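Exam revision sheet. Question 4 asks you to relate a sequence to its structure. Input first:
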Amino acid sequence: MNYDFIIKTSDTEEELQGILQLQAVNHANSLTSVADGFVTVRHHLEDLKKMNAIAPHIIVKDGPKIVVYILAMTSECKEDIPVLKPMFEQFDQILYKGSNVSDYQYIVIGQVCVDQDYRGKGLLDLAYAFYKETHKGNFHFGITEIATRNQRSIRAHQRIGFKEIHQFTDSLPENWSIVLWDWS
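Answer key, structure tokens:
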């Protein structure tokens, strides 16, 4: 199979639509098995546009197709996606290096997804390297939460360099691991 990968920031509505398509296919409610990873949040196009205007999402394309995405979300968007409010509330309480996470300039990895046919090719590592280069000038670290039952994602984030700093259970109940990738 011939691949034509491009790693870049998302800058068109068509690319944002491609993110939503990949998200829909890999949403936990769309899969018969979640053993190979899944996403838990469904975003709206307007939310992706707003987030992207503040800090761009990173995508990997194979030709016109989005095959990997890493969403970028700042605290400016914390009221926009209600299901993520508990995560931001945790940031007000969790200490990192002696200060609350919310006292730092941080960027939230709003969601990560790799197309099933493109897993195991090192694309997530390349996309995360580009994510860091794109955002490290404005933020101290990247941070996100991962459902603890999503072991594929936990392992991938550990490989990238994320370290767990906290766990909590939300009202669903879902168990979450908050992981941080320090760029200092």
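Marking note for examiners. The chain has a mean pLDDT of 91.
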